[in-house]
Amino acid sequence: MKIEEDEVFKGYFKNLSNKERAVFEGGITLGALFHQFVGTPISVKNKETLERAIEDAMKNQPCVEDIHVKIVGNLKEEEYTSLDGNMLDVKLKIKVEDTVAYLRLKYIDELNYPLMYVEKIE
Questions:
Q1: Record keywords: Translocase included (predicted)?
Q2: Which residues does the annotation place in the binding site?
């Protein structure tokens, strides 16, 4: 991000701490990922390509330092299906100045739900 763009961003988030902004940016990124890619056609043949495409797309979001996307589940050879939120296992690293937040999107069996949550903040 260019220095002048960074200053513009800061102006809109001046009422938030770096910690709050990191969590905000992470939530926006995970929400965008979930709602943009759920429903995408997937098979064994394009699983890894889709994982990399999701990562590359989300790296365009502000403050994304790193992201790792894993599509889990039993895809069968020659089977076509649609990506389901329950199939996403995402690790996201957001950096705002000296603050780093680690967020996760993962299906939680006990909740029967793909949960987005903060793992830790440094």
A1: no
A2: 25, 116
Residue 85 CA to residue 71 CA, distance in Å, equals: 9
What CATH number did the domain enclosing 112 receive? 3.30.1300.20
Measured distance CA(57)–CA(72) in Å, rounded: 19
**Domain of residue 19, residue span:** 3-121
Q: Between 102 and 62, whose confidence is greater?
A: 102
pLDDT digits (tens, 9 = 90+) for 35-92: 999 999 999 999 999 999 999 999 999 899 999 999 998 888 778 899 999 999 999 9
Q: What's the total number of domains in the chain?
A: 1
Six-digit token string for 65: 């330092």
Binding residues for substrate: 25, 116
